[in-house]
Amino acid sequence: MPVGSIPAITGKLRKRLILDLTVALGGGTALGYGYWYGVHVPSVARRDAFYAKLQSERSE
């Protein structure tokens, strides 16, 4: 088997690493924003509304 018959794989690992990092960071950021605005912010709003109502009932 001649030495030149093996195809070169130069750069494949770097390209795959860049793709993996891009997908991981983009996906993580998207899921983070989804959690923050889909779960956390509404939860805090409900909590704040509860305590505001409780305070107004106590002041009456």
From TrEMBL:
Subcellular location: Mitochondrion inner membrane
Transmembrane segments annotated in the record for this chain: 17-36
Superkingdom of the source species: Eukaryota
Xref: InterPro entries: Cyt_c_oxidase_su7a_fun (IPR014368)
GO terms, molecular function: cytochrome-c oxidase activity; oxidoreductase activity
Keyword Magnesium: no
Membrane topology: Single-pass membrane protein
Gene Ontology biological process: mitochondrial electron transport, cytochrome c to oxygen
GO CC entries: mitochondrial inner membrane
Record keywords: Membrane, Mitochondrion, Mitochondrion inner membrane, Oxidoreductase, Transmembrane, Transmembrane helix
Keyword DNA-binding: no
The protein's annotated pathway: Energy metabolism; oxidative phosphorylation
PANTHER family in the record: CYTOCHROME C OXIDASE SUBUNIT 6C (PTHR28264:SF1), CYTOCHROME C OXIDASE SUBUNIT 7A (PTHR28264)
Role noted for this protein: Component of the cytochrome c oxidase, the last enzyme in the mitochondrial electron transport chain which drives oxidative phosphorylation.
Family that this chain belongs to: Belongs to the fungal cytochrome c oxidase subunit 7a family.
UniProt name for this protein: Cytochrome c oxidase subunit 9, mitochondrial
Organismal lineage: Eukaryota, Fungi, Dikarya, Basidiomycota, Ustilaginomycotina
